[in-house]
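Data card: per-record layout.
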Amino acid sequence: MTLRLLASALALALTTACLTTPVTQVESLGKGNSQFSLEPSFFTLAADSSVGGGRAFVPALNLAGAFGVTDRFDLGARVGGSLYEVHAKLQLTPDGATIPVSIAPYGTFAAIGVGGAGAGYANLKVPVLLGFPIGERSQLVVGPSLSALSAGGGTTDANTGGAVFSVGMALGLHAKINDSFALHPEVGATVPFAFTTEAGSGSGDYGLTSFAFTLGLQFGTTK
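The structure for this 223-residue chain is written out next.
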């Protein structure tokens, strides 16, 4: 039972880590402003022959919302194919900067228990967003990221678990159609580079790479 629960937790964790990229403009919304997003997405997880080979394709649909707590700080959430995520964004550069920069961490946690056995995972991703203007209303968004995923499970007699650390890159186009609607297509990739378990630690990509495509349809007001 414990092994099955742990396998399920790891599968959920991997899916959540692969499905989502920031899908947002670099600048914060501004105090009191809000935004709602519909995000159809598609991701693929590719494995080379060193880990058995194969490729998985998964479509998903997420709903996301964010609120401007201050002029430079937003809080929000995403639910749907990625289960749920809590996200934030802190704008690091002043308004009007030629190349705006922000940090936009997001993460999730889930757990399951049956009788005396249980399993769970936590996933945290920290992208740094850089914006490059395209015309007057659009922006190329570049988002390198680091992420940490931890999963484990056990019973009253034994426990096991570990963590995987990954690097990622997202590339998006934030195109404002008018003052209250924007399109945001985005592609991203994530590659693991290190792991740690109770038995030890190591490094490498394990032959696993995930790719994601998301189209954000964003409604709301910004500063």
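Known properties of this structure: The longest strand covers residues 159-178. The radius of gyration is 18 Å.

See the next section for split statistics.
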